[in-house]
Specification:
This protein is 80% helix and 0% strand. The protein has helices at 12-17, 37-59, 63-87, 90-132, 135-142, 147-156, 159-200, 202-212, 217-255, 261-272, 280-292, 296-322, 330-344, 348-377. It folds into 2 domains: 62-212, no CATH class; 217-372. It contains 14 helices and no strands. The protein starts with 11 loop residues before the first helix and ends with a helix.
Length: 380
């Protein structure tokens, strides 16, 4: 007759593995704690690696939002800290900080994207119409010095087809922007959502990371400090200064009457991120265009403005904003940015330098440990 009493609640596998009443207890051989140490450690390592790989697969679609949220959290932390001191409520302070970040970055971005796309299509359309209407021939009639260059261009490059393809590409920018608008809104929403928790729970998150790292607490804090400084230098020192350079150059283009000044200012800001290119790839052709159009004074103003104000902004503002936070050479920083863009997309612009900074920090930790071990072995 079966026992009517219900079995006590417990773990399902535990209940299944419980010994059956009446069975003789299993005789377990004594276990040597060191016998299977290597096998157990390798199995745990493999299981951990599998879990981390699966977590990466889950998080990969959100790398852009996670990266932007981390970068913005580093920049917005001084505001968050100030608000916490005044309000004594971290949640409210984080909400206000996210609102400020959204107003300063999100609103202008969403407002400018349609206008930039429209100006890009218009700029390439004007170039296409200028070539089709015989603009190069009229230019050569007044600027004979350009005849050899134009002859070489005609012999080696199909300028008309090139401009036509560029115009068609620019015309599709608006359609692409509309198609990507939903994804952009979702990414922005997720970024602000993550930013809120990164600001509110910053101390707890950092403590948890330091605890999980296979480093001592001072080494873990040094590694996180290096990552934070790299993010700050990349976002503030590179992105903000480049945006300022693009804005300064675009303002002068608008004043001098250059078409699609907003679009070319964005191109200048993007070019300023790449030390090999820089803003001259835009304002020098703009000055030449003004000179060929007969506006010599405007061309001289554009050259002077680009050389002094736009060109010197990077040299003056970057050290002021970044200081001594990151002391990376231009070449590895450039390679990290470009390589990050190829591997991780737009988020790679931050991920690449962060990986470089973290790698250098880990190498310094290994170097200090090696020096300490060498000193301990040779007390003399």
């Amino acid at each position: 007759m079966s026992d009517p009493r219900p079995s006590p609640p417990g773990n399902v596998l535990g209940n299944v593995l419980d010994p059956v009443p009446g069975d003789a207890p299993a005789q377990l051989a004594p276990v040597d704690p060191d016998a299977n140490w290597t096998a157990h450690r390798l199995a745990l390592l493999a299981l951990t690696a599998l879990a981390l790989w699966l977590c990466w697969q889950v998080a990969r679609p959100f790398v852009t939002s996670l990266t932007w949220a981390c970068a913005l959290a580093v920049v917005a932390w001084p505001l968050q800290r100030h608000l916490v001191r005044r309000l004594r409520r971290p949640g409210v302070a984080a909400l206000l900080s996210c609102l400020v970040v959204f107003i300063v970055i999100g609103v202008p971005t969403m407002a400018l994207i349609p206008r930039i796309a429209a100006q890009a299509a218009a700029a390439f359309g004007l170039a296409r119409d200028w070539v089709a209407s015989g603009g190069p021939e009229r230019l050569l009639a007044t600027q004979a010095v350009l005849a050899p260059a134009w002859s070489w261009l005609q012999a080696n490059v199909d300028a008309g087809a090139l401009v036509q393809r560029a115009g068609d590409l620019a015309a599709g920018i608006g359609t692409s922007a509309v198609q990507a608008s939903l994804e952009g809104v979702l990414q922005l929403t997720l970024t602000v959502f993550l930013l809120f928790y990164f600001l509110r729970d910053r101390d707890a998150v950092l403590r948890t990371i330091v605890t999980l790292l296979p480093l001592s607490r001072p080494e873990g804090r040094a590694l996180l400090r290096e990552i934070g400084d790299t993010l700050y230098a990349t976002l503030v020192g590179k992105v903000l200064v480049s945006l300022l350079q693009g804005a300064l150059g675009g303002a002068m283009l608008f004043i001098l009457g250059v078409p699609a000044a907003l679009f070319w200012s964005v191109v200048m800001a993007v070019a300023a991120l790449v030390p090999v290119l820089g803003t001259p790839v835009v304002w020098i052709p703009a000055a030449l265009w003004l000179a060929f159009d007969g506006s010599w004074i405007k061309a001289a103003v554009m050259l002077g403005w680009g050389t002094t104000v736009v060109g010197m902004a990077d040299n003056l503002l970057y050290p002021m904003m970044v200081g001594n936070r990151v002391r990376l050479h231009t070449v590895p920083m450039l390679l990290a940015m470009i390589g990050g863009l190829f591997v991780f997309g737009m988020a790679g612009f931050f991920v690449g330098p962060v990986l470089l900074g973290a790698t250098l920090a880990l190498l310094r930790i290994w170097s200090r440990r090696s020096e300490g071990e060498a000193a301990a072995e040779d007390p003399s």
